[in-house]
Amino acid sequence: xxxxxxxxxxxxxxxxxxxxxxxxxxxxxxxxxxxxxxxxxxxxxxxxxxxxxxxxxxxxxxxxxxxxxxxxxxxxxxxxxxxxxxxxxxxxxxxxxxxxxxxxxxxxxxxxxx
Length: 114
Description:
Residues 2-95 form the PilZ domain. The chain contains one helix and seven strands; from the N terminus they run βββββββα. The protein has one helix spanning 95-109; strands spanning 7-8, 16-18, 24-32, 35-40, 49-57, 63-77, 84-93. β3 (24-32) and β4 (35-40) form a beta hairpin.
């Protein structure tokens, strides 16, 4: 059983994942307080540790960023899309990541405008 519920994104392009050098690695498919699944063009090595930056625009169109240190738990090719996917566990969440998660969870609970 999962420790935290995942937030799944309908639009694959909502949150960008950048590597330590600032290059686009892929996009977040889902995330929670303990990890995330990304879709990318490269196969990540299981057990590899990565420093990543997550970038997205909030509802007010402000750019939000969060730094995270993660460990690749699994990776493989999605047979339907041909893209690689990887499950990443947070090794060291940052204050900015915790703030991002709080904001995303609050946004999911907000009533939708009519």
